[in-house]
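Researcher: Structure for this, please.
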Amino acid sequence: MDSILIVDDERGIRDTLRAVMEDEGFVADAVATGEECLKALGKRAYGCILLDVWLPGIDGLETLKQLRAAGSESAVVIISGHGNVETAVRATKLGAFDFIEKPLSIEKTVLTVRNALRQQRLERINADMAAALAREYTMVGESVAMRALRKQISVVAPTDGRVLIYGESGTGKELVARAIHAESRRAAAPFIEVNSAAIPEELIESELFGHVKGAFTGATAAKKGKFELADGATIFLDEVGDMSPKVQAKVLRVLEEQRFEPVGSGTSITVDVRLIAATNKRLDVEIEQGNFRADLFYRLNVIPFELPPLRERLEDVTLLVDYFNLNYSTAYARKPKEFLPEAIEDLQSYSWPGNVRELKNTIERVVIMHPGMIVSASDLPPHGKEEPPAASFRFPSFKEATDAYHREFIQRKLEEAEGNVSRAAEMMGVDRSHLYRRMRALGIQNRG
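Model: Predicted structure, token format:
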């Protein structure tokens, strides 16, 4: 139940407001001075404070100043019998929610209190969501590679330089993009994300640049595109290597001129966006094959980031396990598991073709499915026990080296396809029956 503190030196007003607030279902207390107000706040965190300006001893504004300095998050509504603009402005600057004048309207006072409490709840929810988001996108690791990455982010983030992030699937490209945005001058503005590979070819242009009503069948109303929504903010183009030549040309123009036309419109829209792009493809190879524009590549690749795969920073596995263990245990209201040294060693011996995402999913599975508090090596999911990636020079013959490569390649594609053989075959550009034959020949068991 929400609690209200009334601070007024007039006993009649204190008693009346207290009775009204209690009738409205609030818990209400009342005091006569600013000193008593500060003392009461030491005993209870009130949702809202109705605070008179003119008080004996320290006045209402000084009381407000002191309670904010003490860290109070109570919503404060200032009351005054001699209201003026200067007092209202000072109160607002000190963090007051609203300013109402005497004689008080009971109806307006109750409405103001309810609005103040509602605003406080929304701010608390927003803060909780921001904290949860920050936890979700925390960069974990103390390896040399991770320390270098954090340093690079701190140098690049405050600028408006375009960034192109390279990395295998699951290495945390979005995580890095969000970290750059969070440390940038645009941090208070939105982070607009676009996954180029997830949007159908016929819709990607409209998704990025918007459209006008009637631009195509189904366009029953005008719609803003991601670039317009990102005006003054950051736009993150994930899997940029999958964009069509037509879309590449329009993105190039936005980067060159900071303007574009929505689909079906002849009117240009000017925007100010910071672009961060990411890909798991080698764009230099895509350029040679004619799949990607060289001029767009040079525009995007102002500041390149190379994200290390997890197999190259296995010393971070322990910290990642602790992080995901705590996160998922909290999310599922369970006590964190204890991973024995043998379990950690087992996890560090695996190549993690799905990178951090695969490790994250593994720990979530353990938190949910393992009934005990102690996790040994034998309690880990089967795919945590693969051989580390084999180097070609270890094999005496060409066939053995080729088989080792094919085995690792197929295992990675199966991991990316979450065990779906048909999807993995499609990704590899081979027939499903051919993939099954190769899996049998190479001794690969699908654990998806």
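Researcher: Any notable elements?
Model: The first strand starts at residue 3 and ends at 7. The longest helix spans residues 106-136.
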